């Protein structure tokens, strides 16, 4: 198990190094002068040169990369030239919105998808299975921004149960903040639940064809007990993989939903920073998200061994 963990850590570190090079170089080849774009096209060359010097754009490429990496290792992400505040402060402000939203969305998605997948697998080929997978297919195909607008109309405009958008902040109370995240979480969770339900069903059907499942059924064990005690645990590896990918997406890939609900999250921060060519913000936030993905994948890999003891024996 220790060797397995060390291998995964080394792979994660190598991934971060490669990702840092890709992120840095990709932003370097983007056309346009960031300093001139920030100051405006009518700004004098002297002012542009001064800003370029302040941003370190006059230094050689390799020195700028190494300075950036040293700052990341110290959790010193630099200062945003658009907002004139440290990047770490911007990340903290946005993370308290994006992280709870991702956790709530993934929790809702899992609570919906696992029972639906079990229901469909237990009734494979029957009307219940067909109906459940048809609904899941609709959820996969439905654009989440359209679903978000529908939720706003029904629950915020028509029923007036929750706010239509904005985020009051956790300082104004937990319940008002949670109410502001309910509709965005639902808009994100239901399409993800549709995907997860289909994966759960497919994994369970594969496990249900195993000999030990037939033996349990032959001994008179009820189908419900077979599903929950034996089949589900052995089918969890692909399910955990999808859940890990979904959490990474929910943490960083919610730009559209954050704009629909006017949420100040990480996705919206990156989008605004790209438009404003605030390179230090883009580089730092993207690397933070890459690190989060690597960490989630490491947790998922470790969970494989916890779920399936056979994997521990192979390490």
From TrEMBL:
SUPFAM superfamilies: MetI-like (SSF161098). Keywords: Cell membrane, Membrane, Transmembrane, Transmembrane helix, Transport. It is found in: Cell membrane. The chain crosses the membrane at residues 9-27, 99-122, 134-161, 173-191, 231-257, 285-307. It comes from the Bacteria. It is a multi-pass membrane protein. It holds the Pfam family BPD_transp_1_N. Residues 95-300 form the ABC transmembrane type-1 domain. Belongs to the binding-protein-dependent transport system permease family. This is Peptide ABC transporter.
């Amino acid at each position: 198990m220790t060797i397995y963990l060390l291998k995964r850590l080394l792979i994660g570190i190598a991934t971060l190094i490669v990702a840092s090079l890709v992120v840095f170089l990709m932003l370097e080849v983007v056309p346009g002068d960031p300093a001139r774009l920030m100051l405006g096209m009518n700004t004098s060359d002297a002012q542009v040169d001064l800003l370029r010097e302040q941003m370190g754009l006059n230094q050689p490429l390799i020195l700028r990369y190494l300075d950036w990496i040293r700052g990341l290792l110290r959790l010193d992400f630099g200062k945003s030239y658009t907002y004139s505040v440290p990047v770490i402060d911007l990340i903290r402000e946005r993370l308290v919105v994006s992280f709870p939203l991702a956790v709530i969305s993934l929790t809702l998605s899992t609570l919906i998808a696992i029972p639906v997948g079990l229901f469909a697998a237990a009734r494979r080929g029957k009307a219940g299975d067909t109906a459940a997978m048809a609904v899941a297919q609709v959820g996969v195909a439905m654009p989440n921004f359209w679903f978000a607008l529908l939720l706003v109309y029904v629950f915020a405009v028509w029923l007036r149960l929750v706010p239509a958008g904005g985020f009051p902040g956790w300082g104004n109370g937990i319940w008002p903040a949670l109410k502001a995240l309910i509709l965005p979480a639902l808009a994100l969770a239901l399409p993800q639940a549709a995907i997860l339900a289909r994966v759960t069903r497919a994994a369970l059907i594969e496990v249900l064809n195993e000999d030990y499942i037939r033996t349990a059924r032959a001994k008179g064990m009820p189908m419900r007990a077979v599903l929950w005690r034996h089949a589900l645990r052995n089918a969890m590896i692909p399910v955990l993989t999808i859940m890990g990918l979904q959490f990474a997406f929910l943490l960083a890939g919610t730009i559209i939903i954050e704009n629909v609900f006017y949420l100040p999250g990480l996705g919206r921060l990156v989008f605004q920073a790209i438009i404003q060519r605030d390179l230090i913000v883009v580089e730092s936030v993207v690397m933070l998200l890459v690190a989060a993905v690597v960490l989630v994948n490491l947790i998922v890999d470790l969970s494989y061994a916890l779920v399936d003891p056979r994997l521990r024996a192979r390490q």
